[in-house]
Design a protein that fits this description.
- The protein is an alpha+beta fold.
- It has a domain of about 260 residues: Rossmann fold (3-Layer(aba) Sandwich), CATH 3.40.50.1820.
- It is built from twelve helices and 35 strands.
- It has an eight-stranded mixed β-sheet, with helices on both faces.
Length: about 650
């Protein structure tokens, strides 16, 4: 199953997804909570008005990773208002800053051995990430991919090879990615696989050998395999892009593949697959209600230890006693919180873990298994008090055509849940989903007195093939109706004040906000579009070059500009700006490679031409979403003023 061209507002681009078309977000099932349970939460004491900056400021320290030898921690901390990489010796406590980024935060990073760190940075949000290497003893970072206008992924960090990395770049052809071996000592790049023009993803085995690839003709995709790097790739399985058959990893003997598949079924499950025999073997795990596509494993013991899946919340199913025991020990230390194991050293004795919930952003700990010692590393937002945050409650309701829809409702504390202002936030993607957990935007708005509704509308992922396909060619139609039906559900129950409802979203959610203003002009009091497309024709014309191989797939999912011209005209908000009767706030990054600035320019011009109220915020140093702290503050300050004026929030 490939994903849509906008996907989630996801900003971790260092490690390559298996397929370049997949963009994007470690028990038992919990039944969805009834509405009555969510309403009772409002009996808690009212929270004081918390400064907007407290919800959106950079953490004081975050993103911990432990060195393979277990002796050092790497993490990100602000320096000159930008998140930079630091390293601390665990025994001595000595800390050193390794990077000096001042224009933009360092993006993802990882240990390369126990004495160097690789990291990624782009320029102004253009998503053309460059890879750098820096030693933990200080010194200037070495740029490994000094090519302008080139997007780079790390394909394999080659843990057992201290001198090399495998990377993929679109240096030769902006539409496709070739594979290179990068010599970390000399900086030499050796091409080891040239993309013939239709490969959307590559995969290595546990010895770093390039043995799997995915090719596409736009709507069909094929799994390619070779037993050794000397052999040519051969085609094993061809499926429609509507089907999922995704390799997750090789077995530790490098003979089998673990795959996520929904062939001949609705919900994706995990299987073993023999590529030499081209045969699916054993079912590893399935869930009756949701897709399962995430494995967890032990590199030291070379075993699959469990799976992760998400119903209303994320859950584990463990196959391994040692990993289950670790989880049980940690959860016993933190009853009432979700516990995630984030990283381990090579000996799996020292563990970085985090606890989190819907009312707390998260706390990092270092756990030493042999001594059972737990050390607190960082609270991501100690200035936000858990008792002042609002619970996020899973909910479900029926759409107008009988489809069961799931979502989340966050109610403000200390007020009766009747006649409340409401902000509905459709997620980005649209091939993505909202999940339970701390949500800064929902908490910010709830603190201002609004109920926040997040609906996983048809076309969202995680609920099976049929639910995903139900969103095809439904921009502004069935997908939008689901959002509308969620709002109406709150109105019917008396939760919402029907005169004080807003719609806000980013990326596809920004489109949905514009669509709400156009197609249901009497439902909303105002709308906010954040890096959202307004004209589907120009959106499809301006996709990044590396999405070009997937263009036909996008036409099937969204609409063909020629064959479906009438449909796309009907659902593109820019052509119907005269219907907008409500105030509009539009925010856009000037360097956005996914939703070009022209998308926001068009709708702002059209709304102004129609004589309507629109506020336009553009940041010249941002792309698809605002990363820099001061830009986030400007955006949410504008949103706060906007909603205070038009929804009478506090």
């Amino acid at each position: 199953m490939q994903y849509g061209i906008l996907c989630v507002l996801c900003f971790s681009f260092l490690l390559a997804p298996f397929a370049s078309g997949a963009w994007g977000v470690e028990s038992e099932d919990l039944a969805p909570s009834p509405l009555s349970a969510s309403l009772s939460s409002a009996s808690l004491s009212s929270a004081p008005l918390i400064p907007m900056e407290d919800f959106f400021r950079n953490p004081d320290i975050a993103s911990f990773a432990i060195s393979p030898d277990g002796k050092k921690l790497a993490y990100k901390k602000p320096w000159e208002r930008r998140l930079n990489i630091y390293v601390r010796d665990i025994a001595s406590g000595e800390e050193r800053r390794l990077t000096s980024a001042t224009e933009r935060d360092v993006s993802g990073f990882f240990w390369k051995g126990s004495d160097r760190i690789a990291f990624a940075q782009d320029k102004g949000g253009d998503e053309n990430f460059h890879i750098f290497l820096v030693g933990i003893d200080g010194g200037e970072p070495k740029e490994l991919t000094p090519f302008d206008g080139v997007k780079t992924y790390v394909l394999d960090d080659l843990e057992e090879d201290p001198r090399h990395l495998l990377i993929s770049m679109n240096k030769n052809n902006p539409e496709v990615f070739d594979v290179y071996r990068c010599d970390l000592e000399t900086g030499e790049l050796t091409e080891i696989a040239q993309n013939p023009g239709n490969i959307t993803g590559w995969m290595t085995d546990h010895e770093g050998r390039l043995r799997v690839a995915y090719e596409t003709d736009g709507v069909n995709q094929s799994l390619l395999y070779r037993a050794t790097e000397k052999d040519p790739f051969k085609k094993l399985i061809t499926t429609s892009f509507k089907d999922d058959f995704s390799p997750l990893m090789f077995s530790y003997d490098n003979k089998l593949l673990y795959v996520a598949s929904n062939l001949d079924r609705d919900k994706t499950a995990i299987y073993t697959f023999d590529p030499d025999k081209n045969k699916t073997l054993d079912l590893i795990y399935e869930h009756p209600d949701v897709d399962v596509s995430r494995l967890i494993s032990s590199k030291k013991r070379k075993v699959i230890t469990g799976v992760v899946y998400t119903t209303d919340k994320s859950h584990y199913r463990f196959f391994d006693d040692d990993r289950k025991q670790l989880q049980d020990v940690l959860e016993a230390r933190f009853p009432g919180y979700d516990v995630a194991v984030l990283d381990m050293d090579d000996d799996e004795k020292r563990v970085i873990m985090a606890i989190y919930g819907d009312r707390m952003r998260g706390v990092y700990y270092l756990y030493d298994r042999p001594t059972d010692k737990l050390e607190k590393l960082a609270d991501l937002a100690p200035w936000l008090k858990e008792e002042q945050m609002a619970p996020m409650t899973p909910v479900e309701f029926k759409s107008r055509d009988g489809l069961t829809l799931h979502g989340y409702l966050t109610l403000p504390l200390g007020v009766e849940p009747k006649g409340l202002p409401v902000v509905t936030i459709p997620h980005g993607g649209p091939s993505a989903r909202d999940s339970w957990g701390f949500d800064s935007e929902a908490q910010f708005l709830a603190n201002r007195g609004a109920a926040v509704l997040q609906v996983n509308f048809r076309g969202s992922t995680g609920y099976g093939k049929a639910f995903w396909e139900a969103g095809f060619k439904q921009w502004g139609k069935g997908m939008q109706n689901d959002v509308t039906d969620g709002v109406q559900w709150l109105i019917d129950r008396g939760v919402a004040d029907k005169k004080r409802i807003a719609i806000y979203g980013g990326s596809y959610g920004g489109y949905s906000a514009l669509a709400g203003a156009v197609f249901t002009p009497d439902l909303y009091a105002c709308a906010v579009s954040y890096v959202g497309p307004s004209n589907i024709f120009t959106l499809l014309e301006s996709i990044p070059p590396y999405w070009e191989p997937l263009r036909d797939m996008e036409y099937e999912m969204i609409g063909d500009p020629v064959k479906d011209k009438a449909l796309l005209e009907e659902v593109s908000p820019v052509f119907h700006a005269d219907r907008i009767k409500i105030p509009l706030l539009v925010a856009q990054g000037a360097n956005d490679p996914r939703v070009k600035k022209a998308e926001s320019d068009q709708i702002v011009e059209a709304v102004k031409k129609a004589g309507k109220d629109v506020v336009y915020l553009v940041k010249d140093d941002e792309g698809h979403g605002f990363h820099n702290e001061e830009n986030r503050f400007d955006f949410y300050r504008a949103m706060e003023d906007f909603f205070r004026k038009h929804l009478a929030l506090r």
